[in-house]
Every structure is written in C-alpha cells, then in structure tokens.
Automatic annotation (TrEMBL), chain A:
Record keywords, A-Z: Cytoplasmic vesicle, Golgi apparatus, Membrane, Protein transport, Transport
Gene that specifies this protein: LOC110777016
Native source organism of the sequence: Spinacia oleracea
One Pfam family hit: Clat_adaptor_s
SUPFAM superfamilies named in the record: SNARE-like (SSF64356)
Chain ranges of the AP complex mu/sigma subunit domain: 1-146
Name recorded for this polypeptide: AP complex subunit sigma
PANTHER family xref list: ADAPTOR COMPLEXES SMALL SUBUNIT FAMILY
A GO BP entry: Golgi to vacuole transport
Main location: membrane
Location of the protein in the cell: Cytoplasmic vesicle membrane; Golgi apparatus
InterPro entries: AP_complex_ssu (IPR016635), AP_mu_sigma_su (IPR022775), APS3 (IPR027155), Clathrin_sm-chain_CS (IPR000804), Longin-like_dom_sf (IPR011012)
TrEMBL record, chain B:
Name of the protein this chain belongs to: AP-3 complex subunit delta
Bias kind Basic and acidic residues: ranges: 877-899, 926-939
Primary location group: membrane
Compartments it resides in: Endomembrane system; Golgi apparatus
Keyword entries, A-Z: Golgi apparatus, Membrane, Protein transport, Repeat, Transport
Family affiliation: Belongs to the adaptor complexes large subunit family.
Length: 165, 977
C-alpha cells in the first residue's frame, strides 16, 4: 500500500501532499520537513530508495525522483515492489507532462485541483489502480469536461481570474 | 438583496489562483509578511465560506483545502461547510467538497454522521465520476459506521457493468473490510468472483485488495490459492503478477506443498520476463519463501548476479538486498559475489554501502572474524561518522550473537572492544558497555584481559570528556573493581578512579566509580594484611626459603578464597609491591628490584613499617578525593562516598595505631584484619548473568496491587528525558544537518528554473521513453533492453583501500575447514539455552475479526455454490470429526489431496493422519485419470475442498456416521492446482 505521495520543490516547499493514513496537518508539515532534510542531503546518482522506518513507522520505504526543481516522493510499504514504485513515478510524471504539455513547476503550482484528479486516478486509497497514462488522461479529460459543463450554465464567472483571461 | 450581495461577493472573491499569486508575491520576502498574508487570507475565507452562494462557498473551501495541504493549516473547524459543499449538485463544486473531505476528515470528525446519505446518493448516481468521487473519499476516510451503512450499496457496485466504477468499488472494499469486518459476509463472494472476471482491470483491483489483506493475515486466504495460481499462469500483466507473487511468498511459507506448485511458473517468469521489477519480485519470492528449492535458488542467484553487474545503483542496491536475504540459508551465493560486495563497501551510495556491510557481516565466521573486523575497524576510521558507527554497530551485533558464538579468542575480542571505544565518533557506547560487563560475568577466562583493557580505558584522560563514552568507562570501572585481583597495579587503578576529572562524569557513572573504588580499597587492605601476616610468620620462622614462604602463604589463605584465587592474589600482592616501588612512593630501602622472589622475605622484614606508608597514602588519597562527594546532590554518589569515608577512617585509625605500637600486638592487628575480611566477604560472592526469563519465574505475590492509572508515569518520564538531553551534547553530524537546512534560511527562490524544467523533463522522458523497469504488456515486444544507466562517477579515491580489503579478506572468506585452535574456547556461561523466550504475539483484534469473517465467508460461499453441484454429481463426500479431517471422494482425477496433519493439527492427529494417508492412497489407486478439462477440474475441486472444510461443523453429525471416520479434516485445504 502506498502511504503518501508528496511533490515538493528543491527548496522544500510542498507542491502536492497526499497522505493515505490520516495525519494531523502539523504532523504532515513535520514529516515533509524531515523528508526534505533527508532528500536534500543525498548525493546525485545514487539509488532512489530510502528507508524511512524512523520517520513513517515500521515497514516504510521511500522512493523519490528528482526532476529539475522538483522531488517526486512515494512512501509505501512491503506490499509494493520497489522498482514498480519507481516506474509509477515515471507514469505520474509522464501523465503530467502530457496533461500540461511540457510540465514545469508552475503548472503544478497553479493546477492544484487537476493535480489531485490525476493522482486520484492513478492511486486509489493507497492502491495502484491505473498504470496506463493514456487511460488516466482520458479520465482526467472527461472529468474536466464534466466540470466545465457544470459551470457554463451559470451567469457568474467561475472566478475573477478566469474572467480576466 | 442578500442574493445580490452574494453575487457581488462572488464577483470580487479571490480565486485559488489569485491566492497562489498573492502568496508568490510574498514568498521571496521575509517569512513574517507571508504569514500575515496567509492569516489575512484565512480571515477572508472565514467570511466567504459563510456565504449562501454555492460558488463562493466552494471557492472558499478550495482555497482552504489548498492552505491545509500546502501550509498545514488546521481546517477542522470548516468540517460542516465541507458537508454542505459535498451536497451541491454541481459536479465541480461537489468535487471540491470531496477533495476537502478526503484531506481533512478522520475518525474524530463529528459531522461524518451527516454525510452517509449523501454518500449513498452519490454511490447510486448514474454518473461514473460522481460515484468515483464518493468511492475515492470513502477509501480514505471510511469509518466503521460509514462502512457499515454503505456496505450494501457497495455490494451492488461490485457487480456493476461499468468497469470504471467497478474497479474503484473493488478497491474500496479493502478499507471497508478493515474498518468493518462484518462486511466480509456481504461482499466477499463478489470480491472473489472478480478474480475470475473477464475485465482485466477488475482482476487487477481484486488482486490488489487480496494482496493487502493476505499480507496481514495470510492463513485466511490459503483456500484461494488455486485462484491465484490460475492468475499466475494466465495473467500477462506485470503489476498483477507482482501482487500475486507477493501473496504466494506468504502462502508458500504456510503450506510447503504450494511451493512445489509455484516454483516452476516462477522460474519461467524469472527467465523470460524483461521487466526488472517482476524479475526482482520473483527473486525475492524464491529467496524468502522457496529457499529449499535448489534449482530456483540457483536461478535466482544468477539473476542477482546480473543485478549486481548493473551500473544502475537502484538495481545494484536491490541485488545486494536480495543477496542478504539469501545469506542465512545459502551462504555460497554470497561468497560467489564477494568481490562485488567488498567493492560496494566504498560505494558513494549510502544504501549500497549499508547493504554491502550487512552482507560482509553475514560472511563472518569463527575463523575469519578477527581479520575481517580488523579491516573493518580500520575502514571505519576512514569513513564518514554515520557509516563508521554503522560498521561498529554491526561488528558488535555480529560478534555478540548467540552468546558470542563466533568469538573464540576472548582476549582478542575484549581488546577489540577497547579499540572500538576509542574510534572517534563512536556512538555505540551503550552496546560496548553492556558487552564488557556481560563478558566479565559470563567468561571467566576473559577477566584478566578485561581488567587490562579496563585499566587502559580508565587511565586515558582523553576519554572522560566524551559523553558517548561514559557508559564504557562505567563498565571499565565496574570490571576493574569486580575483578581487581587480576589487576597488575591496584594503586594506579585507584588513582585513575579518583582522578579529579571524574567530575565530568554523570552521577550514575560516578556512583559506579565510587563502588569500584571501594572494592579496590578493600582488596588493597586485604593484601596489606596478608603481607603483614607473612612478615610475622617469617620473623617467627627465621630464614625460610622463598619456597617455604609460598607454602605458608597457601596455609594462611583465608577460607573464603579458593586456592586458585589465592594464587592470583599472591601474585598481585607482589605486583602491589613493585607498583609501589615504581610509583615513586618512599621505598628507598628497597634494594632488590629484580630478583624479587629471592629476596622477598628480607625485603619485607626490612620494610615492615614502611609498608604501612603506601597504605596510609592510599587511605589519604581516597579520603581527599571522596570527602567533597559526601555533599553530592545525588543520593547514590553521596551514600557510597560516605560509606567509603567511614571505612577509611576506621581502618586508618587502626593502622596508625598498629604502626605506633611498632610490633605485632595481636589484638589491634586482629581488628583491622577482621574489618577488612568483613568487607572482603561483602564482595566475595561472584556476580553472574541473569536469565532473561528470571522475572517471569517469580510468581506475582497475591497482595500485589498494580496501579490502574499510570498518568504520573509521563511526568517521571519527561523528567528523565530532560536530564538525559541536557547532559549530552549533539553529535557533529546532527549539527551539520541543521546548518544546511535551507528551510531556516528562509524561502529560496521557487521558480528560478521553471522555464528550464520542462526542457530537462522532456529530455528525461525521451531518454527513458518506454524503457522502464516495468515494461507494460503493450510494449513487451518493443524495448527489451534496460536503458544504460548514467555513467557512474565512481571516484577511485577509496580504491586502494578496497583492494586491500579484497586482498585481505580473499582467503579468509573462502569456506575453510574448521581450524584446530591451539587452545580450547573458554566456557561461556549461558542461562537461557533451551528456554524459548516467546513474546506473546497477538494479532490485532480487528485482524482477528477480519480473518475470522473471511474464513467464515469462504466456507459459506463455497457451501452454497457447491452443494448444488454436489447433489448433481451425486458423489459421496467424506467428512470427519472435529478439527481434523477429510479426504474427498471426489472426481477420480484428484491426485494431490491434502494430507496435512501439520503443525496446525498437532500431535493429537498424528495417529489419525496415518489412517488418512492410507485411505488416500487407496483412493488414488482405485480411481483412474479422467479426461475432464483441467481448468474446470481445478475449479470444481477447489469448491469441493472448501465445501468440506466449511461444512464440517454442520454436516459432520449428519454424515459423519456413514463415512470413513478415520479420515481427517485438514485445517489447511487441499490444493488441487
């Protein structure tokens, strides 16, 4: 089971946090800080696994990938395969890239909702449910369409900023 | 009016994007301004969220959720608003509500009671995505109440014709079962059915759920093994195969016959698959659960070797890990790869270094332990502090394993402990401390060396300043005091124990120092008295030869000492003298330095008065050093100081008195002697190791009342923590980490490289496209090669050391015949052999409930489905009694009936199981093979077997009499794979 999915930048600022066991927000922030201090001290070109039993409790593994300014971090337990998790990060990033056309950190900052939609399509309650990024994109697009259609019949624009565009 | 104001609100409301932009404007500046901006935003949101306009309210909630997940604001106060937003009919708003609920709701959220109906409504929605929202949320926040109430709705969804909904409904079952085990009765059958679904997504989801469930409690899912086996054979999806392998890894440990079945397919996958992750999973399954299957292990070791040869650090790391799992049973596999293992010790990757260290330790044996540890300790000196400590820790653990099993030469080991204590950065003080004491108590022969090592540690003033070593010093002090008779120079020891810098020690260690001082003091006095007695004897007997004196010594030895101990004492008695001479104490009249033994008598008689001087000096020294401690705030220290001082004063009076009288005036002398003997008797009893079970052997007194409420324990505990944290300084590694922490340096510039990121990301993708660890079934034909890993920048700075290491250990690592050791291994006192200390291991109640429910469900399901089949087939079944039981008189081609009278059934059934075997054989002979389709057969068989198991409660009375009573019901079902 996957325990948490965290995307944070190389300054330690979280961009996406998803905990599949409930954690108090203070605890979440503390975990993220601890993880960051672990990750930023790891040299380049070393393995992507970190044992995080001391941070997340027994039977916790962490796998991360570093892309440009972002760390993609999955925390999982022994029910998952290490290399499969590494691949899942790849699937996730690939999906993001397709959704946002050359994704960059800004896309991730400003598309909070969509980001969650994507993660939720891939991981459901800590279980991996979809590993095909084309399928994920299809679902995400359908959801976006549905969202758009449920707003169009309103005369008030969705928000000031979208009105400004 | 209210309506129009809410429209205005909506117009001028900041959206989430606006909020984010605002935050970004503030972030490069100091953290105070951002926090004030955030709190202002929260205020704004608090106003907006009260709006009656759904749009305004949900936008406010979205912003709040964002602040919660990124900045860690507690938004539990908004729970009711979340419920409201969930209930909006617009999909986009509802989604915001569900997102907020998933992120913030938990068991203690009261308003959860209000969402049940909304969940139910959404679960029955015609819109797939609405159902999905509710399921998604349920999978994260589902409580036992919620799961109970929605159980039936879920049941309906499990056989939904909409694949998108169905896979999510299957996945949510995991949460529901965990929170509300009774749901098993409702949903289990449909969940099982999905294993055979034609929809691969449903199968995948169901396998995922079973994998999670069975890892927690594998036994309950044994009956489903045939299903999993079918998936293992048929399925081509790597993700699913990995999960199935994980399950078999657990199941095969419970049911050895299962191993035989699966080993073939697993080897096949291992050989053919291109997906590294799947191959690795196969390796792991073989290593952990099928390690008795020689051919599989061989293949796995070949595959491990391939992983080790990869440049990719991930694969190398995992290869080493798999190798270390293999080490316990198949050490040859590790030895085959020892070069790689040794080289990895100086890898840049901390994971790889650690794995390699673990492996190296697994290769350690009685014959090579000395060489390997020597090399490792040297290696530790050159490593970074963290890894250095890791090395020390693993040496300590390995060597002390099973009562120092691999240690043959304790003198060597004890001095190694001393050496390790001196390694800079050493943080294993506690472990070294306990081992020093433990060896002292368990291994008699190691004591002289222990005392020597203890002396070296105590006299080294540099060690006193390192708080990590205080434990070791305490052990050294204890050892020196307890086994002082082996000491070459008690006076020196005394000085070391009383040196002024001991005030750097924590009180607990100081108390040990004082106690040891006391022991050494008593020992010295004892020696002094014997010496006097000797002198008396010699003056009476005139010129006796040294031989004569020796025999006299033997005669005069107090009864409390054994003869051998006396030898040691007599020996150190002489040492005492020579030490006194060495240490510049007034002994001008000693003229014979070398031929001590020869001139023993004359020397003593000449200096009989002067011998008092060192003793008086000793007493004075003790007094001076101990006096300040009688005002110590620590009771332990104070009490012991006062005791010592009391004894010192009494003895000093007496000795001075004796000195004044100049000659042996029997009465006074007798008094000192008596006092000293009295105290010596105090320490006469040898301290020994304590059995781990010692406490358990003492019955709890009937009148002992335990406190129910232990709240005051926290108070005590916090005191303890406080004191310990103040007395220790932070390690260097820690403080360095803090220095580097950029969080404390304020926010960095977040999107400095945002323009370049997309480019590099794309490059990464291109480089990697399609070339994953896990090839998906679609591109199976495409890329077979794993992408060449990035050129490893292996700096050869440690190269030489490593090569040395390789050379040094070259010979010692090969499996040798046991050497003939020159001297026999000393005896190690063991107390707990044969006593198994089994900690009461209990499943969590919830797990028990769940597995119980699963067991029942499996049985029930099968009964319903098979009973009809049974009557159709009209074949008789055989039932047996109680727990034990049955062979199925089923279709003729059942070949591999479970014979099982395993550990489960236990002794009571062994007699019966014999019967069963016979009957089984008979049946096998009597029935020929039939041409039934393989698949169908297995299904049928599965059902039948389950049916039998299950129905044992109900049908045994009905059918029992008519059946072969000698057959037994296996607890573990038949595997007719």
């Amino acid at each position: 089971m996957i325990k948490a999915v965290i995307v944070m930048n190389t300054q330690g600022r979280p961009r996406l946090t998803k905990f599949y066991d409930f954690q108090h927000p203070d605890k979440q922030q503390e975990l993220i800080r601890t993880l960051y201090s672990v990750l930023c001290n790891r040299p380049e070109n070393v393995s992507n696994f970190v044992n995080v039993d001391s941070i997340f409790g027994p039977d916790s593994q962490l796998v991360y990938k570093h892309y440009a300014t972002l760390y993609f971090v999955f925390v999982y337990d022994s029910a998952e395969n290490e290399l499969a998790m590494l691949d899942l990060i790849q699937v996730f990033v690939e999906t993001l890239d397709k959704c946002f056309k050359n994704v960059c950190e800004l896309d991730i900052v400003f598309n909070y909702g969509k980001l969650h939609t994507i993660v939720d399509e891939i991981i459901f309650g800590g279980q991996v449910l979809e590993t095909n990024s084309a399928e994920v994109i299809r679902a995400v697009e359908a959801i976006s369409k549905l969202e758009a259609s449920s707003t169009t019949n309103r005369f008030v624009p969705k928000s000031v900023s979208s009105w400004r565009r | 009016m209210a309506n129009s104001s809410s429209i205005m609100d909506s117009f001028f409301q900041r959206s989430l994007d606006d909020l984010i932009k605002g935050i970004r404007l503030h972030s490069p500046e100091s953290s105070t301004s951002i926090s004030s901006f955030l709190s202002k935003s929260i205020e704004e949101i608090r106003r907006e969220i009260k709006s009656t306009d759904p749009q305004t309210k949900s936008t406010a909630l979205l912003k709040l959720t964002y602040l919660h997940s990124i900045y860690g604001f507690d938004i539990s106060w908004a729970a009711f608003h979340v419920v409201e937003v969930i209930s909006y009919p617009q999909f986009n708003l509802k989604r915001i509500g569900y997102l907020a609920a998933s992120a913030t709701f938990n068991e203690s959220t009261e308003v959860l009671l209000l969402v049940t109906n909304q969940f139910r409504k959404d679960l029955s929605s015609a819109n797939d995505f609405e159902v999905s929202l509710a399921l998604q949320c349920l999978s994260v926040i589902g409580t036992s109440d919620l799961c109970r109430d929605l159980c039936n709705d879920l049941f309906t969804l499990l056989s939904s014709t909409r694949p998108y909904v169905k896979k999510k409904a299957i996945a949510v079952v995991l949460r529901v079962f965990n929170k509300y085990p009774d749901a098993v009765r409702v949903c289990f059958k449909r969940l099982v059915d999905n294993l055979e679904s034609s929809d691969p997504q449903a199968v995948s989801a169901a396998v995922g759920v079973f994998c999670e469930l069975s890892l927690r409690d594998p036994k309950a899912y044994l009956p489903l093994a045939p299903e999993f086996y079918r998936i293992l054979i048929d399925c081509k999806n790597n993700w699913v195969l990995i999960k199935v392998l994980k399950m078999f890894g657990k199941l095969a440990l419970l049911e050895p016959r299962l191993g035989k079945k699966i080993v073939g397919p697993i080897c096949e996958i291992m050989e053919k698959s291109m997906a590294k992750s799947l191959v690795f999973e196969c390796i792991r399954t073989v290593v952990s659960s099928l390690s008795d299957h020689e051919s599989a292990v061989k293949l796995a070791s070949v595959k491990i070797r391939e992983l080790l040869a990869e440049d990719d650090p991930n694969l190398k790391y995992l290869g080493l890990q798999a190798l270390s799992d293999l080490a316990t049973k198949h050490l040859w596999a590790v030895l085959e790869n020892k070069d790689v293992v040794l080289k990895s010790l100086s890898d840049v990757d901390p994971n790889i270094k650690l794995a390699s260290l673990r492996l190296l330790m697994s290769m350690v044996s009685e014959d090579n332990v000395a060489e390997i540890t020597k090399v490792l300790v040297n290696f530790a000196l050159k490593s970074d502090p963290e890894f250095c400590n890791e090395i020390l820790r693993s040496i300590l653990v390995t060597c002390s394993g099973n009562y120092y099993e691999i240690v043959f030469d304790f003198d060597w080991y004890v001095s190694l402990l001393g050496e390790m204590a001196r390694v800079p950065h050493c943080q294993s003080g506690e472990e070294i401390e306990s081992q020093l004491v433990d060896i002292g108590m368990r291994v008699k022969d190691a004591r002289p060396e222990l005392v020597k090592v203890g002396r070296d540690l105590l006299t080294d003033p540099a060690l006193l300043g390192n708080p990590f070593l205080h434990g070791i010093l305490s052990a050294a002090a204890w050892v020196s005091g307890e086994y002082v008779e082996f000491s070459k120079n008690p006076f020196e020891l005394m000085e070391a124990l009383l040196q002024p810098r001991t005030n750097l020690l924590p009180p607990s260690v100081r108390a040990v120092y004082l106690q040891s001082t006391f022991k050494v003091l008593v020992f010295c006095l004892q020696c002094y008295i014997w010496q006097r007695e000797e002198v008396d004897a010699s003056s009476l007997a005139g010129d006796l030869t040294s031989l004569g004196i020796d025999s006299k010594c033997g005669l005069q030895s107090p009864e409390s000492r054994t003869l051998s101990t006396h030898g040691a004492i007599a020996n150190s008695e002489q040492n005492l003298e020579s030490a006194i001479r060495d240490s510049n104490w007034p002994f001008e009249d000693f003229d014979n330095q070398d031929a001590l033994q020869e001139n023993h008598t004359s020397a003593l008689s000449e200096t009989e008065i002067s011998t008092q001087d060192p003793v008086v000096k000793l007493l004075n020294l003790t007094e001076t050093a101990v006096v300040p401690l009688i005002w110590s705030h620590e009771v332990e220290v104070q009490e012991r100081a006062r005791n010592i001082l009391g004894v010192v004063q009494i003895v000093k009076q007496d000795i001075l008195g004796v000195g004044a009288m100049h000659e042996t005036s029997g009465k006074k002398d007798f008094e000192v002697c008596e006092i000293t003997n009295l105290f010596d008797d105090l320490f006469e009893e040898e301290l020994g190791p304590v059995s781990v079970n010692a406490q358990a052997r003492i019955p709890v007194p009937a009148d002992l009342i335990f406190k129910d409420n232990l709240t005051d324990l926290d108070l005590i505990y916090s005191d303890l923590q406080l004191s310990s944290s103040t007395s220790f300084s932070l390690g260097t590694s820690r403080s360095r980490e803090e220095d580097n922490d950029p969080l404390s340096n304020g926010q960095g510039r977040e999107d400095l490289e945002s323009s370049t990121i997309s480019g590099s990301l794309l490059a990464q993708h291109r480089k990697r496209h399609g070339l994953y660890y896990l090839t998906s079934e679609k591109d199976e034909t495409g890329s077979n090669d794993y992408p060449p890993a990035t050129e490893s920048k292996y700096l050869d700075k440690n190269g030489d050391e490593v090569n040395d290491l390789v050379k040094l250990t070259e010979q010692s690592l090969t499996i040798k015949k046991r050497q003939n050791h020159a001297k026999p291994r000393p005896m190690v006192v063991k107390l707990d052999e044969g006593e198994n200390f089994i900690p009461a291991k209990k499943l969590e109640i919830k797990d028990e409930l769940l597995s119980g429910a699963v067991r029942d469900a499996l049985l029930e399901n099968e009964e319903v489905s098979t009973s009809s089949k049974f009557s159709e087939a009209g074949k008789p079944s055989v039932e047996r009694k109680g727990k034990e039981t049955l062979v199925i008189d089923g279709p003729p081609d059942l070949r591999e009936h479970s014979v099982t009278a395993d550990s489960e059934v236990g002794n009571s059934s062994s007699r019966r199981s014999k019967h069963k075997n016979h009957s089984k054989e008979r049946r096998q002979h009597s029935h020929g093979e039939s041409g039934e389709g393989k698949e169908e057969r297995s299904r049928k068989e599965k059902k039948k077997s389950s049916h039998h198991r299950h129905s044992r409660h109900k049908t045994q009375e009905k059918q029992g009499s008519s059946n072969n009573a000698s057959n037994q019901t296996p607890q573990i079902p038949d595997y007719l794979l």
